[in-house]
Each structure stands twice: as structure tokens, then as C-alpha cells.
TrEMBL record:
This is dolichyl-phosphate-mannose--protein mannosyltransferase. GO terms for biological process: endoplasmic reticulum unfolded protein response. Its EC number is 2.4.1.109. Belongs to the TMTC family. GO terms for cellular component: endoplasmic reticulum; membrane. The gene is Tmtc4. The keyword Secreted does not apply. InterPro entries: O-mannosyl-transferase_TMTC (IPR052346), TMTC_DUF1736 (IPR013618), TPR-like_helical_dom_sf (IPR011990), TPR_rpt (IPR019734). Pathway: Protein modification; protein glycosylation.
């Protein structure tokens, strides 16, 4: 290890540096709470944090999990590991205009490991890791809070002392059971916040380790300061907030290690007081350590900037309406209102929602809006706390309040809209780290009340009641995160004006086949947000399937008018126009979709169907071939090529395409069926029979499979087997076209054979 040697002229600096003042008041003196040995305290915290979220272990992939995990190609083994460093959290290239610039490669790496170990997308493993991470973080909080609330002091053997065992246990329990953490723990995507918090805390504890006195008598270790910087970098590679730990380490150094009175320091700095030179601050290495932290942070940000590029993330007005407001006043008022809502979620986490955008929180546009009261209350409390943190004569109070405010505010800064636009209004996940500051302030407030209260046990019971209510709230909220249906419906009462909530409820119902109910929610989503193009697109799709083509066309036309580069809506508009037999318009819509999304296999597939309807067979085959080039597993495109070539008498080419398709998708029974038909017509009966039987084994209830195999046996002269499969086909589908006629022909033939035999 490398150590920094202080100026030997500073008398007794080592002793002063490593010990808290003996006369300093201890927070635990006033806290009426349980006193447990460190090991048991951590066991209790781990157990309770596990109980809060245990029922989420077998939940589904919900909400953003689909995009970040199921549809993220970075999780699959065929994607090179190196690509993770150039892709965003959702698997898009960072250089893409559509990238959200959320750079979290280490989090994605853990998802990939989960996927590989599980052998596929099985959510249990993902959920279990999240629960374990939260339990680990909660246990670490016991040590972190013991330092923040009790100070940093080591024994003669270099072991860190816990000077606030009761307070640190209470604060850690408050953190472990806070319901606002449910999104991070029960939602798999929340792992970014959990991993970030883990390395955030390890960085802080590593920084504290730098001040353990060593055998040579040196006062701090450069090695551990550098380790802290590296851990901060790892935290940032899990989620952007991680970089803020470097600033908090600097604040901790100034307040706890150097015991700086900020107000006095600022006054002396402004007036160039010579006493500042004699304060011993620089000789204690504060400037050197802060320089290390600043250089480390600047280096990390520079490397991140070089990888990500300079382009800002792409967000829309519905994601964060206030950031698109023309008036600076409206932006400032609403940003502050959002801060007050985040503060309220920490104080009273009862109304929780998976998404707070799209009209959930209407903009404040006038000072006459009653919600201004929330801003006033927030700043009244903050200013009061800041004044106490700066001006109190009690150094112990100054230190705890400043650290509490620091941990509350600094980790929240990346989500504050102050430095760059963010893609949300309020997000419960981003207050996972700031809740550390809340727990510090709550515990300190509890100690002040305990000091004044005559019946301290009643106060302790009240706090215990809060903890129990939070445990029950966590369990309830975790159960809501187990499935999309429960999650989305739980939001209807919290954010009834949120168009995205109604959209997601509708989509969930549509996926389950309940189209009538889905239409109702999609219509409400469009009513709440008349520019909600995704709701229009999905509603148009359902109406198209219900043959309500004219309304579907109106909705899809409006969607592409609002968002001209919406490729999916252009394709769906083409499908509707094709159904209305307006073929030229349909072709134009398809090509417009392809212009906006060049790699669009489904659109090429639908374009091929249009050309097939127009008997433009060469164009149809080319379109389907493009679909299979872009998406080799596009079974429908392969099937249509085989069927078209079969119907036009190109059996050799149809056979070649069928064999090529089965090499790529060997277990697709529909391809086996199509190729078997071609081989039967080419009189390759044995191979055709084998494919038919394989297809039937994969899908035994397909009437057409049995019917066509019966036709093969009929042609082949194996009449008994033909009769058997005709009967199975008719049993499965009595109205199967052609099967009944073929069966009757076979029966007459069998009767004739019996007569001849007789």
C-alpha cells in the first residue's frame, strides 16, 4: 500500500485524526431502541428485508423487463461480450439516435449470466438475485449508518468501533423495509439500482478504511482512496447515480475526518482569514484526497463521454412534459413540484405507481395552482434543515444533518433535470439511494423526540408500528409486481389520468384475448392523450382484426400524421388498405414503413402477401426472401415461399427452399408440413411420410396434417392408413375442406375392392 505522510510539525495529528472527540454527544444516549450485538443486528436486518420481498421470487417478467431482458440481444450467447460496452441498457447502439444513453454494461452482464445459468428466460433466478442484493445492501447499511450517525473511530487493534449500535439498527431497518424500494427489488430492471447501491456503499466503506491507523503511524492510505474511486466507477457502470459517491466521500472527509464547520470555513475563505492557513486542513491531506477524488471522477466521466458520444438522449414530451415547457418559470415550478412528490414518497409511501408520466401529474402553469403549497412546504423544511446544519452551535447536530442532507440530495442530482433532461417525471427507483439520507434524518428526529418525551416506550412502539406497516406494504406491493395485470391495475387508482396506465392495462387484456375490454382502455388512453400514437396503433390493430376497417384506417392515418416516422403504424395502415383492396396505397404505406425502419422483416412479409394477391409472384418471392434474410427464423415467410412455388408448379425450387428453411428452423412443424406436401407431389413418398409423421408428433391436433397425410397414403396405395388418418382429420375438424370428399372416394374404392375380393 502507498501512504501519504503528513507534516511532522503537526502535534498529535494522528491521534486527533483517528479518534472522535471523547466529549462529543452520542446519538444512542437519547434513542429508545433495541440494543443488539453487531452480528445479531445484521441477521435481524437481513431476515426482515428478506420477508418484505420474498413473495416476489416467482413473479413474471413485467413492464420494462420485456425490453431490457427478453428483447435484449446482449443477453444471448451469440452476441459478443465486447458489444455490451458499446450498447445501452436496452441493447441499442449508443451511437443510435433512438438510444436513451443509459450506459449500464455491468448490470446487463449480470442479466446475461442469469440467462446463461438458467438456460433461458426463466424469471425466478433473476428475482432471487434481486432479493439477495437488497438483503446484502440492507446488512451493509448497519455499518454505513454506524459511521454516519456515530462517527468514525478505530480501536488500538485497528478495528472500527460502532458508536451508535441502536441508531444504526433503527436506520438500517427503516431502509430495509421502505416500500418505495419495491420497484427496485421486485422489478428485475431495478437490479441496476441495486448493483449501483452495493458498489456505492462499498466505495464509501473503502474510503473510511483509508483512515485506519497503520503500524507506521501514517494517517491515511492512498491505496484505499484509489480503491474507493474504482468502486465508484463500478457503481457508475451499473447505473449513472453511482458517480455521486465520490462527492459524498469528499463531504464525509470534510465533516467527519476534518470536522470542518462549513459556515465558518466559508466566512474565512471569503475574508481571506489567515487563521485558515493554521487550521491544519491541508496538512491533514484533505486537499490531496479531494484532488484524487476529483481526478478520478473526471477521468471516469471522460471515458464514459468518449464511449457514449456527445448526442443527448432521445426523450419525448410525454416522458417529461415539464422539460419541454417554453417558460423557464413553468419548468422551475414543476421541477420543484416533482422534488416535493419524491420527498412525499419517502415520507408516506402509500401511493406507488409503476409509471408517473403521461398526464399522471398535470403541469403547474400558474401560481394560483393549490399544489404550490407542496413546493413551499418542501423548501420551508429544506431551508430549516440547512440553517440548522450550517448555523447550529452543536457540532454533532451540524454533522448529522449535513450528512443526512448530503445523502438525500447528492445521489438525486442526476435525476433532478438540473444538468440534463431525464426520461421520467417521478421514478420510485431513483430514490433508492437518496432514502439513505431520509433514514438518517428520520433516526435523528426520533432521537430528538426521545430526548424530550417522558414516555419513551410509547414513542418506540409507534416507530415499531411504522416498521410493521412498511413490512406489510412491501409484501402487498411485491405481490402487485408479480404479474403485469396486477401491476397495471394497481396504478389505475393512483394515476387515473395516466394514459400509459390505461394503455398497458389494455395491452395486457389484448394479449390475453379479451379484445372488447382492451378496446375500452385503449380508447381511454387516446382520450387522455390525443397524441398517443402507440395506443392508436394497437387500437387500430384490434379494430382491423374485428373487420372494423374504416375506423382502423382513421386511427392509423392519424398516428402516422402525428409521428411520420412510426414504421409499425405505416405497416398496419398498409394491412388495412390491403384489406380494403386499395392496393396501390397499401404498397406505398409498406414502402414508407421500410424507409423508416430498413430492417423490417414483418413489413417485407406483408408486402409479399400484397404482391401474391396481385399475382406478382416474382415480387412476392423477393419480398419474402428479404424477410428471411433479415430474420432467418421467419417461419411464415418461408412457408409462403414454399406454398407459392408449390402452387405455381415449381416443385424443385419449392423443395430446395423447404430444405433450406428446415435447416434454419428444424423444429417448425408448419415447415415440415409444407415440405412434406411438395415431396408427396414429387412422388418422394417415404420422405414425405416421415415429415408428415414428425409434424403430427409436434402438433397432433392439426386436422390438415392428418388429412394431407391421408391423401399421401391414398396416392401411395396404402389405403388402410389413408382411411385411419382421414377419420382422425374428420374427428378433429368435421368441416375440413376436401377431406370428407376424399374420405368418401376412399370408402367407395375400399367397398369395390371388397366386392372384387368377395
Amino acid at each position: 500500500q502507498i501512504f501519504y505522510q503528513h507534516n511532522a510539525e503537526a502535534p498529535n495529528l494522528e491521534q486527533a485524526f483517528h479518534r472522535m472527540a471523547q466529549m462529543e454527544p452520542n446519538l444512542d444516549h437519547d434513542v429508545s431502541w433495541f440494543l443488539l450485538p453487531s452480528y445479531w443486528a445484521k441477521m435481524v436486518v437481513a431476515l426482515i428485508s428478506f420477508l418484505c420481498f420474498a413473495n416476489s421470487y416467482d413473479g413474471d417478467f413485467v413492464f420494462d423487463d420485456s425490453e431490457a431482458i427478453i428483447n435484449n440481444k446482449d443477453l444471448r450467447a451469440e452476441t459478443p461480450l465486447g458489444d455490451l460496452w458499446y450498447h445501452d441498457f436496452w441493447g441499442s447502439k449508443l451511437s443510435s439516435n433512438t438510444s436513451h444513453k443509459s450506459y449500464r454494461p455491468l448490470t446487463v452482464l449480470t442479466f446475461r449470466i442469469n440467462y446463461l445459468f438458467a438456460g433461458g428466460f426463466y424469471p425466478v433466478g433473476f428475482h432471487v438475485i434481486n432479493i439477495i442484493l437488497h438483503c446484502t445492501i440492507s446488512v451493509l447499511m448497519v455499518d454505513v449508518f454506524s459511521i454516519l450517525l456515530g462517527g468514525l473511530q478505530f480501536s488500538n487493534k485497528g478495528r472500527r468501533l460502532n458508536l451508535a449500535p441502536k441508531s444504526s439498527l433503527l436506520a438500517a431497518l427503516l431502509f430495509a423495509v421502505h416500500p418505495v424500494h419495491t420497484e427496485c427489488v421486485a422489478g428485475i430492471v431495478g437490479r441496476a439500482d441495486l448493483l449501483c447501491a452495493l458498489f456505492f456503499l462499498l466505495s464509501f466503506l473503502g474510503y473510511c478504511k483509508a483512515f485506519r491507523e497503520n503500524k507506521e503511524g501514517h494517517t491515511f492510505s492512498v491505496f484505499w482512496v484509489l480503491v474507493s474511486v474504482v468502486l465508484g466507477a463500478i457503481a457508475m457502470l451499473c447505473k449513472e447515480q453511482g458517480i455521486t459517491i465520490l462527492g459524498l466521500n469528499a463531504v464525509f472527509d470534510a465533516l467527519v475526518i476534518n470536522k470542518i464547520n462549513l459556515l465558518e470555513f466559508i466566512r474565512k475563505l471569503l475574508y481571506k482569514d489567515k487563521a485558515l492557513e493554521n487550521a491544519g486542513l491541508l496538512r491533514k491531506g484533505l486537499l490531496f484526497r479531494i484532488t484524487l477524488l476529483m481526478c478520478g471522477g473526471a477521468g471516469i466521466l471522460y471515458i464514459r463521454w468518449r464511449i457514449m458520444g456527445t448526442g443527448p438522449p432521445a426523450f419525448t414530451e410525454v416522458d417529461n412534459p415539464a422539460s419541454f415547457a417554453d417558460s423557464l418559470f413553468v419548468r422551475a415550478i414543476n421541477y420543484n413540484y416533482y422534488y416535493s412528490l419524491n420527498a412525499w414518497l419517502l415520507l408516506c409511501p402509500w401511493w406507488l405507481c409503476f409509471d408517473w408520466s403521461m398526464g399522471c401529474i398535470p403541469l403547474i402553469k400558474s401560481v394560483s395552482d393549490w399544489r404550490i403549497i407542496a413546493l413551499a412546504a418542501l423548501w420551508f423544511c429544506l431551508i430549516g434543515l440547512i440553517c440548522q446544519a450550517l448555523c447550529s452551535e452543536d457540532s454533532h447536530k451540524r454533522r448529522i444533518l449535513t450528512l443526512g442532507l448530503g445523502f438525500l440530495i447528492i445521489p438525486f442530482l442526476p435525476a433532478s433535470n438540473l444538468f440534463f433532461r431525464v426520461g421520467f417525471v417521478v421514478a420510485e427507483r431513483v430514490i433508492y439511494l437518496p432514502s439513505i439520507g431520509y433514514c438518517i434524518l428520520f433516526t435523528y428526529g426520533f432521537s430528538l423526540l426521545s430526548k424530550q418525551a417522558k414516555k419513551k416506550k410509547i414513542l418506540a412502539v409507534a416507530v415499531l408500528g411504522i416498521l410493521l406497516i412498511n413490512v406489510m406494504r412491501c409484501a402487498l406491493r411485491s405481490s402487485q409486481w408479480r404479474s403485469e395485470e396486477q401491476l397495471f391495475r394497481s396504478a389505475l387508482s393512483v394515476c387515473p389520468l395516466n394514459a400509459k396506465v390505461h394503455y398497458n392495462v389494455g395491452k395486457n387484456l389484448a394479449d390475453k384475448g379479451n379484445q372488447s375490454a382492451a378496446i375500452k382502455y385503449y380508447r381511454e388512453a387516446v382520450r387522455l392523450n390525443p397524441k398517443y400514437v402507440h395506443a392508436m396503433n394497437n387500437l387500430g390493430n384490434i379494430l382491423k382484426e374485428r373487420n372494423e376497417l374504416h375506423e382502423a384506417e382513421e386511427l392509423l392515418s392519424l398516428a402516422v400524421q402525428i409521428q411520420p416516422d412510426f414504421a409499425a403504424a405505416w405497416m398496419n395502415l398498409g394491412i388495412v388498405q390491403n384489406s380494403l383492396r386499395r392496393f396501390e396505397e397499401a404498397e406505398q404505406s409498406y414502402w414508407t414503413a421500410i424507409k423508416h425502419r430498413k430492417k423490417y422483416p414483418d413489413c417485407y412479409y406483408n408486402l409479399g402477401r400484397l404482391y401474391a394477391d396481385l399475382n406478382r409472384h416474382i415480387d412476392a418471392l423477393n419480398a419474402w426472401r428479404n424477410a428471411t434474410v433479415l430474420k432467418p427464423e421467419h417461419s411464415l415467410a418461408w412457408n409462403n415461399m414454399i406454398i407459392l412455388l408449390d402452387n405455381t408448379g415449381n416443385l424443385a425450387q419449392a423443395e430446395a427452399v423447404g430444405r433450406e428453411a428446415l435447416e434454419l428452423i428444424p423444429n417448425d412443424h408448419s415447415l415440415m408440413f409444407s415440405l412434406a406436401n411438395v415431396l408427396g407431389k414429387s412422388q418422394k413418398y417415404k420422405e414425405s411420410e416421415a415429415l408428415f409423421l414428425k409434424a403430427i408428433k409436434a402438433n397432433p391436433n392439426a386436422a390438415s396434417y392428418h388429412g394431407n397425410l391421408a391423401v399421401l397414403y391414398h396416392r401411395w396405395g396404402n389405403l388402410d392408413l389413408a382411411k385411419k388418418h382421414y377419420e382422425v382429420s374428420l374427428k378433429l375438424d368435421p368441416m375440413a375442406p376436401g377431406t370428407k370428399e376424399n374420405y368418401n372416394l376412399l370408402r367407395r374404392k375400399l367397398e369395390q375392392l371388397q366386392k372384387k375380393g368377395g
